[in-house]
Amino acid sequence: MERLESAIAILDDLIAYPTVSSEPNLEMIVHLASLLSEAGAHVDLLHDRTGLKANLFATLGPDAPGGIVLSGHTDVVPAEGAGWTSDPFTMRRDGGRLYGRGTCDMKGFIAATLACLPEFAAADLRRPLHFAFTYDEEVGCLGAQQLAEELRQREIAPAMAIIGEPTGMRIIEGHKGCNEYTTRFSGTEGHGSAPEKGVNAAEFAARFVHRLLAMRAELQGRAPTDSRFDPPWSTLNIGRMHGGTARNVIAGQAEVEWETRPVTGADADFVRHSARAFCDDILLPEMRRIAPDARIETEIIGEIAGLVPMAANEARDLVAELTGETTADLVAFGTEAGLFQALGMSVVVCGPGSIAQAHQPDEFLEIPQLQRCLDMLMGLVRTS
Asked: Rounded to two decimals, what is the model's pTM?
């Protein structure tokens, strides 16, 4: 019970840091670094280009290859809009639930790892125990991409990683990739009474979206026959469109924010190449017949590989031993897991809370879920 109350108190502190992806996370990272340093961990902070955000990578135990990574992201999605019945960044305890932005996605897992620090530090660890806390997962796994490259360059090679995303403490051994893009159209403005004299970026953006929707239908027909995902095919979503300045002005600028969640690398290539060919071979020549300086540019926000289910998975088997879970599932939502798998680790996703609560008003974490996570983490003391 003391450890559980410690985890709740730590989570209370973490929720108070409004680490929305658009804002710095540095204050929270420094706080985490202080707790880990006090426990005797070797701590590295890896800043982004602005110096306002950072990853944290810390290690307890021997300076040796192998070991286990406990990974979580520090950023949260915005908490604006209706639906909140209390301050999103002040944790509220009500019955068996803890309310606040990030309670389940995913500061609850981070708090649980820190609540176990006294036992981790006192244990005679035979293999290193690593802590990886990243920035900007919610907007393209940007921090984890930087961290993965840093680990590769330093030749730090953990054997396993547990990604503590909210799975209801179910074992997740695979998920789809997540590729996010913004495609921008630059045409020429003009008076709306003579649309033929300009290049309407909004109209070309709409045609691009129409092509993306056609690709979405094509992706359904490409689903592998043995796919265990729900849905079994790669998905494509239009997240946001914006263009123009007024109804009587030809839109000079427009942009489309979109994503695809591929089941296979071949599907990711199909979408990427088909979108580029439609722009380069169809839309852009039409635009430039009127405006030679017209442009279509696609920014890659993030291209994150999925977590590929593996027949042999040491991390999955370890978490099954620690939790008593006997099955492993797949999910459609994405995580940073594929980046760790690409480094050669065996990886599993397992953490407290429900993904159904993530990104919602009055996000909450059930206290029994937090206790189950603590029990799993304490098992690492016995196995490490």
From this structure: 0.86
